[in-house]
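Check these lines:
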Amino acid sequence: MRKFPNIIITGTPGVGKTTTATQLIELAETESASFSEKIPLKHLSINKIAKQHNFYESYDSELQTHVIDEEKLLDHIEDVIADGAGDGGWVIDWHVCDVFPERWVDLVVVLRCEDTQVFYERLTTSKNADGESRGYEGKKLEENVDAEIFGTVAEEAREAWPEQGQVVELKSVQAEDVEENCERIWEWCKQWVKNNAEKQSGEEEGDGGGD
């Protein structure tokens, strides 16, 4: 049983996944000093992994995006996170979530930017986590805007993690939303660690209680 929770931060491109993941880890590093045990969260950017290892099958010219070789990607990630056998504490950052086995993840955070104008501007003019201008247009822009309007990622997340409480949607429109979201996720992490420790302690007592 892992010691710390694994979390996916997901959502349509442009909702602030990488920013939230980065600030959450910074918050954990700062706040762990006041908690009974350090919670060492670690960032796992799927986009960076796919790019670094060239986990691409092809390139979709219409959508202007690479098609990920999911089998190679998952094999690599399984080694990284030890398929639940390691300590955990991974914050997985990607716009897709339902390809990951349910057993790998304890919480799925779906970020939402329901202000269409703000979201449109992010996709057309803002920069991504690598500092590159998104500049979405045509079908790529249309499909991502539609996906956000209709909550496609949230729907996929709930189908993949049907247990109540495993999937949460958080508003990510203004800068202050990021800070509030990180605080909420951090509080959840602390509670998870506490509950997990109590559960393990109870199991150990149960194993040693009989002759």
Summary: DSSP finds seven helices and seven strands in the chain. The beta strands are 7-10, 42-45, 56-60, 65-68, 90-93, 107-112, 167-171. The longest strand covers residues 107-112.
